[in-house]
Amino acid sequence: MELLPRSPAEFGSARYWDRFFRQRGQRPFEWYGAFPELCPVLHKYVRPRDKVLVVGCGNSELSEQMYDVGMCEDIVNIDVSDAVIRQMRERSVGTRPKMSYLLMDMLQMDFPDAHFQVVLDKGTLDALLTDEEEATLAKVDQMFAEISRVLQVGGRYLCVSLAQAHVLKKAVEYFSQEGWVVRVHQVASSGDKQQFVLPVFVYVMTKFRKMPGSAARILEICPEEQDKPMRVESAERLVAAVKDRQHYALLCSQISKTPCREQVSLDLCDKKSGKPRYTLHVVDSPSVKPSRDNHFAIFIIPQGRETEWLFGTEEGRRQLAASAGFGRLLTVALHREQHYEGMASIQAELSGKVMELAPPGLPARQQVPFLSVGGDIGVRVVRHCGSSPLSGEFIVEDVKGEGTCYFRRLIFLQNRNVVQSEARLLAPTAPPGQKKRRKDKKKPSPTELSGAIDKSYLCCEHHKAMVAGLCLLGGPDTLPGELAVLVVGLGGGSLPLFVHDYFSQAHVAVVEIDPSMLEVATRWFGFSQGDRMRVHVSDGLDYVAKLAAEAPAQYDAVMFDVDSKDLTVGMSCPPPAFVEKPFLQKIKTILKPEGVFVLNLVCRDARLKESVLAALRDVFPLLYARRIQGEVNEILFCQPGPAGRHGPAELGVRARALEGALRRPGRPWDSSYALADMLQAVHIL
User: Fold this and answer.
1) What pLDDT band is residue 417 in, cutting at 50, 70 and 90?
2) How far apart are CA 515 and CA 537, in angstroms?
């Protein structure tokens, strides 16, 4: 039996609907859900004494159920199909005396003006507005005009729809321009009983008298999980908000049926502010053999640790999921602008939403565990918020790392998942003569820490590799003597501070384009200037060019650790201009013949990276590379002459000698500074 129309235009044909309902018989046909799903929304806008008009009623049971539960009895149903009107009259004869069915075209209704308090439309607008042809839009305008005519001021037009973009936009623009209040509700799904993958929406258009002039339009959306509507500023934003919810519904439908081949990422936003509150990643592990208890788990990433390799990269999350032993692991990152009470409140807040992302085959009523590191949500304290014309908005925050360590971080909010600078905080010490209480075993929180920076500790692996590269200076088994070092890019200042403190004869010049970063490094990261440490607030390009012209061959080492502000380029460090061949020639000019140029390269664009390496090879005869495991960073050691070429074994000897010279009695030295290990993976390009 063929019930579908031969063309979309037939949806507006009385002949088509007569044939449709004769062939379908007495079985109700429910467009977009049944009464139980729609009832919570309808109950808000339909009062028992209202006079209700249902346009395009078909043979839906909606009117009958509204009548039978006492929601409303004075209901008039109209349709263009004579066959369905006769069916519906027969169904309600003698049982619903106050409800009527009339054969009538909604484009030309016989009712007087302002006759109804509610007009209800379930799928009729969607059936009429199948395209955006001129004739179709004219019919829709006629439909809206008739609905407006028969509604009283304060009356509601309730339209149940799948909210295709062109349908929603047309309705919103028409009625908002007429001065009506427009609100869109998402209808809660009914699980396995839901007929459509896409969610169902109800447009609520409340009629007001049109005010003269350009009064502000009131547009709102009410997601299914909350009653309080959210105001939006434009019809385009309202359509976009609905589209976001449709995409989410499609995603949930897809991943509930099949495993994810690729990791899926989505943000859950705060209901009040609309800002991201949680970032979720869905990670499936095909290698995990399913059993009743290992289908699905939620992993809460402690605050401040979302940038770590294990949590912040696809490969890391894949490894985390496999080691956790669950077929699907949902990782949850917490955002710094949000407040969280604790693990229990997060679990209560997320329990309903995360189950929408459950894997196929999850047993009914299965308990889904919430996991974390150490069972808590971590600690994050924002110490400072700032902004500069060059770096944009930035923050300084203290976070709890692994174990009992706390760290201070500088984050540029335009790239909030990247730690710009990091330093370890020292634990507070008791004043002289005061003994520590043995009973108090509580570890200090960031609010209790002294704020003092552990200048002996390099948090970044690429900084350790950059320091190891200084073994290329000096003899094979001696510490380099008096050094002149130029560092381009200050950040928090940990790299130049370490070189200054551990190379006691080094004179360090730092070039930083942003004066705000000098203030941040000084106030929050323990940076200070002195006889052997000077900061020049200048563009690195200009500073190096001036040196090349006025004072060549004066530096033993030039170290570049400068980020790019242009996120559209596939290279985030350094900016492309810093690795163009003419500028590289200037770097070579300011280096001493046996000096070394150390570059932190972060490039995801393979072609761009190859062009950078080609330019470096053209300028520097000797080029070493060291990849940082688990990161995109690659440290390049470039020397102006080939005479100092060393194999991996000799580099290891030199690095061990450098480490031995730096490890002096009374000077802190972290066990992770295995400089020889840093250079084991170095290869000559």
Assistant:
1) confident
2) 6
Domain 8-250 shares a fold with domain 459-684 = yes
Contact 624, 684 (CB under 8 A): yes
Diameter of the chain by CA atoms?
107
Q: State both tokens at 629.
A: 């495991």
* Least trusted range by pLDDT, from 60-69, 266-275, 502-511, 602-611: 266-275
Q: Is 279 exposed, middle or buried (0-12, 13-18, 19+ CB in 10 A)?
A: middle
CA distance 32 to 13: 20
> pLDDT band for position 28 (50/70/90)?
low
Give me 231's structure tokens.
């105001």
Matching CATH number, 8-250, of 3.40.50.150, 3.30.460.10, 3.10.20.70, 3.30.360.10: 3.40.50.150
Q: Indicate the pLDDT class of residue 441, thresholds 50, 70 and 90.
A: very low
| Structure confidence by residue, pLDDT tens digits, 498-532 | 999 888 889 999 999 999 999 999 999 999 999 99
Between 358-372, 470-484, 587-601, the lowest mean confidence (pLDDT) is in 470-484
Among candidate residues 316, 168, 139, the one with its CA nearest the CA of residue 242: 168
**Which residues does residue 485 pair with via DSSP β-bridges, in sequence order?**
508, 557
Is the pLDDT at 443 greater than 90? The verdict is no
- The full set of domain ranges for the chain reads 8-250, 258-360+367-371, 459-684
What does the pLDDT read at residue 270? 85
Above 70 in pLDDT, residue 437? no
Q: Are 274 and 308 in contact (CB under 8 A)?
A: no
Note the pLDDT tens digit of each residue in 95-125.
Answer: 999 999 999 999 999 999 999 999 999 989 9
* CB atoms inside a 10 Å sphere around CB 136: 17
Distance CA(47)–CA(51), nearest Å, equals 9
pLDDT digits 0-9 by tens, 277-299: 999 999 998 888 877 778 899 99
DSSP 6-39: SSGGGGG-HHHHHHHHHHHTTS---TT--HHHHH
User: Can you tell me the distance from the alpha carbon of 391 to that of 412, in angstroms, rounded to the nearest whole number?
Assistant: 7
Residue 82's H or E segment, with its range, is helix 82-92
- Are residues 412 and 391 in contact, defined by beta-carbon separation less than 8 angstroms? yes
SS (H, E, C) 185-244: EECCCCHHHCCCCCCCEEEEEECCCCCCCCCCCCEEEECCCCCCCEEECCHHHHHHHHHH
Closest CA to 466 of 681, 684, 675: 675
- Superfamily (CATH H level) for 459-684: Vaccinia Virus protein VP39 (3.40.50.150)
- Judged on CB neighbours under 10 Å (0-12, 13-18, 19+), 18 is middle
* pLDDT the model gives residue 309: 83
Whether the CB-CB separation of 616 and 623 falls below 8 Å is answered with: yes
Fold of 258-360+367-371: Rossmann fold (3.40.50)
